[in-house]
Design brief:
The protein is an alpha/beta fold. It is built from 6 helices and 7 strands. The chain has a 7-stranded mixed β-sheet with strand order 4-3-2-5-6-1-7. Helix 1 crosses helix 2.
Length: about 200
């Protein structure tokens, strides 16, 4: 999954669509992988409330120097100069507008030439017919058993909790997002007086 994404970026696929409810986990994992591979891309994130943030030193820093309205789903496309991976949250809510999908199609050649990668991160995949051939969909996997174990270990250490049956807890967490699993662990600690 991570290597597939990095490969698409290296090959300058212009529009990627990550199908997930786990916005932050997906973006952090992909941004970290891109940084480790030294693909020399700037990494930014946009959402309708916060505007643009840049990924530096394993964290996202909001860009304060922009006086543009962050709610404009097209303006930020032209902010990126050079090789950039632009993660955009919830773009499925804008993509069906003719102005939005047309802006993307108009910029496809520019994206390819300058290695700009537009990455939509959304729990709903609704690609307009007019741009389907330009978009590559990636399904972001739910946490693995090892990732769930890491979440469990952090909770146990932080709360001094006791795990009665680790295998049962991990198998019960299968199919949950990291956020859901973490909530379930802490809820169990509270309800069972320090036991999971």
């Amino acid at each position: 999954m991570i290597n597939e994404f990095v490969g698409y970026v290296a090959a300058a696929y212009p529009i990627l669509w990550i199908d997930t409810h786990e916005y932050n986990r997906a973006i952090k994992e992909y941004a970290r992988a891109l940084s480790e591979k030294n693909l020399h891309h700037d990494i930014t994130v946009w959402d309708v409330v916060s505007g643009i943030s840049k990924y530096e030193n394993n964290k996202f820093i909001k860009l304060e120097d922009s006086d543009d309205d962050p709610s404009m789903p097209i303006e930020f496309l032209h902010k990126a100069i050079g090789s950039t991976v632009m993660f955009v949250k919830d773009y499925h809510l804008f993509i069906e507008s003719v102005q939005v999908w047309r802006a993307l199609v108009n910029d496809i050649d520019d994206f390819k030439q300058k290695s700009k990668i537009f990455v939509i991160v959304s729990p709903k995949v609704n690609i307009p017919e007019e741009i389907k051939r330009y978009v590559t969909v990636i399904n972001f996997s739910l946490p693995t058993k090892d990732e769930l174990k890491s979440i469990l270990d952090v909770a146990v250490t932080a709360e001094g909790a006791e795990v009665e049956d680790e295998e049962l807890v991990l198998s019960s967490g299968s199919g949950l997002t990291a956020f859901e699993f973490e909530n379930a662990i802490y809820h169990s600690i509270v309800l069972n007086k320090g036991k999971i």
